[in-house]
Design goal:
about 65% helix; mainly alpha
């Protein structure tokens, strides 16, 4: 992987990690690591922070439940205009990429 791809902008890393949290195949330990890291993160994209705040409240939900309820939950919190499709359209990152993204956010 070249250097440009290794150091993505924070907003892209946030989106990838949110996509992972919405994915069906994410294991509990990795989910917990992402939640913990993002809880201490200052988001580059305020929409990503709002999505994260919703996902924190439904940590054990299935991917289907997240997809079905995320928009409504954001609307109830006062964010009806957030487009969640970019999160759902993005392929969730691999475990290796998740580890790399978490390290990059720590810098």
């Amino acid at each position: 992987m070249d250097e440009a791809k290794r150091h993505l902008p924070a907003a892209e890393i946030e989106r990838s990690l949110l996509a992972a949290l919405c994915a069906p195949a994410l294991d509990r330990q990795t989910r917990a690591q992402i939640l913990q890291r993002l809880a201490a993160h200052i988001f580059a994209n305020p929409d990503h922070e709002a999505i994260f705040r919703v996902l924190v409240k439904i940590p054990r939900a299935t991917a289907e439940h997240i997809r079905e309820t995320l928009r409504a939950r954001l609307t109830r919190l006062g964010f009806p205009d957030i487009d969640v499709e970019p999160i759902f359209e993005l392929a969730p990152p691999s475990a290796k990429k998740i580890t790399m993204f978490l390290r990059q956010l720590s810098r």
